[in-house]
Design brief:
GO terms for molecular function: flavin adenine dinucleotide binding; sarcosine oxidase activity. By secondary structure, this protein is α+β, with helices and mostly antiparallel strands. The chain is about 25% helix and about 25% strand. It folds into two domains: about 110 residues, FAD/NAD(P)-binding domain, CATH 3.50.50.60; about 120 residues, D-Amino Acid Oxidase, Chain A, domain 2 (2-Layer Sandwich), CATH 3.30.9.10. Bound molecules: flavin-adenine dinucleotide (FAD). Flavin-adenine dinucleotide (FAD) binds next to α1 and β3.
């Protein structure tokens, strides 16, 4: 069976890697830009990976599996794709996000530490904590290196025999029942199945789902701290604050000198409503 993956970002690169492991499957991946480019949802140095999950404990089994797969890809590629810095999640103890965090660590007996505001102030002098705030340090969490991860998954897929066509923007997909015709401009490829992982570009390729999608830009920022020592990974884990409807997250100095912070004025609602600024 010949299976195409369209869009080699976070999801597509991993799909291609897994397909390339299945005997009898001929995997072929298409990417409109270069491999591990700078325009995807995956870009920006680090992505927080958490096991203590304020979204709900239902996700924990999936996260356990994901963590094992990140280890496996790190081992195969010989690259450190995951830094086990830990993740500090803070919030008000009586608010739902914090209660879901507690439920996820208790239900699945995840290794963690529970801290008061006073303890957090002492341990993490670079951050500011309110008196009514509590924290949970997820000891299995940390920062993924997304550009390296995408690159490594594609590289591994290629080593397993997958074909990769970069700088090929797919312009149409036509399902003909027993086969699918994929068009990249003038070039046609015929496959048995297609996996569409085009992220925020999906409305262009699958117009029928356009009414369900609204593309917004999520802004990441890096700052040079006055005292960089407080923000080094050995002194500060990744961090998330969820309180009063405000969500902020960041990572310690992965590059040794700058701290990454992103804030949303409400969970899930990005600050900027502009569409992504990338070449079309
Ligand atoms: C700023 C920011 C911070 C985030 N922080 C976190 C975090 O800390 N932890 C976390 O778990 N998640 C985080 N996320 C979410 C996570 O990064 C995304 O959910 C994930 O990267 C989405 O992956 P994707 O494969 O859907 O999209 P993408 O990674 O964007 O991949 C889509 C790919 O499809 C390609 N493509 C599109 N159209 C075509 C076409 N027609 N032909 C060929 N190729 C095409 C694109 O070029 C791109 O490479 C964050 C997201 C953002 C934006």
């Amino acid at each position: 069976m010949k299976i195409a993956v369209i869009g080699l970002g976070s999801t597509g690169s991993m799909a291609l890697w897994h397909l390339s492991n299945i005997p009898g499957v001929e995997a072929i991946g298409f990417e409109q830009f270069g491999i591990s480019h700078g325009y995807g949802a995956f870009t920006g140095e680090s992505r927080l990976f958490r096991m203590a999950y304020h979204e709900g404990s239902t996700y924990v089994p999936l996260l356990k599996r994901a963590r094992a797969l990140w280890s496996s890809l790190s081992e195969i590629s010989g690259r450190e794709l995951f830094h086990n810095f830990g993740v500090l999640s803070t919030g008000k103890e009586d608010e739902a996000p914090f209660q879901r965090l507690v439920e996820s660590v208790e239900r699945y007996e995840l290794p963690h530490e529970r801290l008061t505001a006073a303890q957090m102030r002492k341990r993490y002098p670079g951050l500011d904590f309110r008196d009514d705030e509590a924290g949970i340090v997820d000891l299995q969490g940390g920062a993924l290196r997304p550009e390296l991860a995408v690159f490594s998954a594609i590289e591994t897929a290629k080593a397993n025999g997958a074909q990769v066509r970069d700088h090929q923007k797919i312009t149409s997909i036509e399902d003909n029942g027993d086969h699918v015709v994929i068009q990249a401009g003038e070039e046609t490829t015929i496959v048995d199945r297609v996996i569409v992982t085009t992220g925020s570009w999906t409305s262009e390729l699958v117009p029928s789902i356009a009414p369900l999608l609204e593309v917004r830009r999520l802004v990441l920022t890096w700052f040079l701290p006055n005292n960089p020592v407080d923000f080094q990974p050995e002194n500060l884990p990744c961090f998330i604050r969820d309180r009063d409807g405000f969500h902020v997250f960041g990572a310690p100095c992965v590059d040794g000198y700058s701290i990454k912070i992103a804030g949303l004025d409400e969970w899930g609602v990005p600050l900027s409503l502009d569409p992504p600024m990338c070449p079309r």
